[in-house]
User: Fold these one by one.
Assistant:
Number 1:
Amino acid sequence: NPPQDFEIVDPGYLGYLYLQWQPPLSLDDFDECVVEYELKYRNIDSESWTALKRRFTHFCQGNAQMDQKFKVRGQKLHIGHHYKGLDHALECSDYTKNNEKNIGCRFPYLESADYKDFYICVNGSSESKPIRSSYFVFQLQNIVKPLPPDYLSLTVKNSEEIILRWDLPRGPIPARCFIYEIELTEDDTTWVTTTVANEMYITKTSKESQQFCFLVRSKVNMYCSDDGIWSEWSKEQCWK
């Protein structure tokens, strides 16, 4: 059966709509299955539909246009179906904090970090008035923070040429999706450069320099995400 009680609520914010519905009637063996919903919408003057798949019975449409059409349908999925990463809703158990306020959440390791819809519900409580929950949908590759590179090595050849190498960050992100930022220090001079490879050849600026150090951080590049998030810096590697 189709989902029931489908309605569109206008909360009074310009360009913002809240869509909600109820599960279909007569679901057999509901305890052993979950329902995935496909929501489609389009402008009335367009023939093409935009489709979203989700497991919640609501959706927030920001920047909504006038004269849009919406429709929703559902399908049963067995809990043991092939789905990488989190297969059910989880409450955050490890918040990141700033000045005692929750500003983020660390989730368990996800097997696949690319092109998966990731649904977030942010809620809260207040003694003065109810707080409406906010819902967001992301693609994982746009919000993932990679681990920093490790096993840095520094080799000096012919007293001038330097070879910098490091291992790929651990995790499921393909090598082609990384960009690296390298901070280099030669004696008292520091500069920063970037590369898409996990090695770099450079030349010392002075034959008399006594120390050379570098550290690296990584993020998912613009070919694999909208805008990646830089990892923490690696441990420093030095030559004297």
Number 2:
Amino acid sequence: EVSTEDPETAFCTLANREDLNPEEGSIYHCLYQFTCNEKLTETNKLLCDVCTQRHYGPKNHLKSENKYVYTNAKKQMLISLPPPILTFHLKRFQQAGFNLRKVNRHIKFPDVLDLAPFCTAKCKNVGEGNTKVLYSLYGVVEHSGTMRSGHYTAYAKVRSMNRHLSDLVLRGQYPQALETEPVKGQWFHISDTHVQAVSAAKVLSSQAYLLFYERLL
């Protein structure tokens, strides 16, 4: 969808992303890099219908002459509708010559994550005046081994029902007041049929492959 907006506000976010200063090797740094402004120049210039019509005349004249005007532009990926459940899939492989190699680097991720610096200022499903979009971690999938063989295990939090989240999913309603604390519960490590209670610190130190967050609102 292409829309025409004020250039001064088109790239504004719900919370100031420049105050973040994200730590390299963290999920915040990944999100920051993914949502950075990208300049489209030279061979990446954008085809501009307005510029083309201004230069060559009406569109119906273009079909026969196949003339277009390309212009420099800026591109940015931002979130316009924060989901009730937020899932991150971390790329755990890299190209090494003709082979794929697993990336074992630890990526830091928080118990409570604020998505607001990566959301558009006109974000939907956010209460008026709110500048935070908070999520609580409830699940992690971890992979041990190599690209050829390995084992998947999971961390899951047994927690009480999140009624605010239920209202959002079932009725599309969101409260004006934000919950800022993570959903209370007990973490468990699941490996095949073996289940063991673990601490939150153990979970946050895991080598995450998949991360699952629920909206705190």
Number 3:
Amino acid sequence: PVFAGMKGSAIENFSCVIYNIFLMNCTWQAGRDAPGDTQYFLYWQESREDNQKECELYIKDENFRNMGCIFQNVSIGTEKAYFLVNGSSKDSLIQFYDEYIDLYKIEKLMPPSNITVNCDEIKNDCMIQWQRPKISHSNKDKCFKYEINIKYK
């Protein structure tokens, strides 16, 4: 059955963030009613054509339970990625958790770089320039909107 396992044993509060273009960090909390010896395992699939991969670098809590994962060399495609977290316990069956996520929606962008400000006091104006941050899923500038907050001293 799809929901086999002890009720309340599946993970909760699953979330992932992609940062620095190709690093992804996923975290979760143990199920409310999961036995103390429950160990969780994360698998993901970037697209239907790719093979499912297990986490290679787990983040562990104080009880040495897997409570997160760091993935390297992540590439963002157009398809939703599939995530599956299952668990095991010697005491009972653990419910699994799964979710499809658009990776581009969880990418945390870095701030602009190489910011320069050149002011001309005679003309009473300033030119501010910067390089947009690198992102993994697009090279289009139309994705970006900037806000400049100028404070006078």
Number 4:
Amino acid sequence: GAMSRKKLQQLLDSLGRASKHFTKIEVECLVKLFDGLVAESRSRFAAVGFDCNMFRDVLYRMFGMMDDVMMDRVFRTFDRDNDSCISAEEWVGGLAVFLRGTLEERIKYCFEVYDLNGDGYITRDEMFQMLKNSLLRQPAEEDPDEGIKDLVDIALKKMDYDHDGKISIVDFEKAVRDENLLLEAFGPCLPDIK
């Protein structure tokens, strides 16, 4: 593995205490998995964690994610300190929400994924980009963009509670609590819980 035994043990101790969604045994499995993946990746980050390409590969292999844009967004939400590398702590912390998060945590997570520029709002333009990306094109369609614009309008009608033309975290949370299916309204960013 990539980590020394001592470092691994320290990490397991601190993560085991910190993790409220995983048992100590689960944390240990996740860290071993992380360590194995890092060793296998041989990237420039190999000592500390893995980069976006490695992470995409993991999302694809383990969770069947295909969409590059979504995978990049998931990477950014996992990568808390924005150093373009996912550390063992970020891996366990991210997976805790990804796999076991409370509704509240998942709402916050999905909102972050969808708020492409991080300004605290999901705008028309962001919805359009994500929907355009996640919907399959029908070859017969004249102008698929029109259909997507309609979807964006419907989403706004349903979710924009304060009518300011964009969706804040407050709007998003209200909408999802009202109708849980709206959690991934703008594209799949959580695993299919198998």
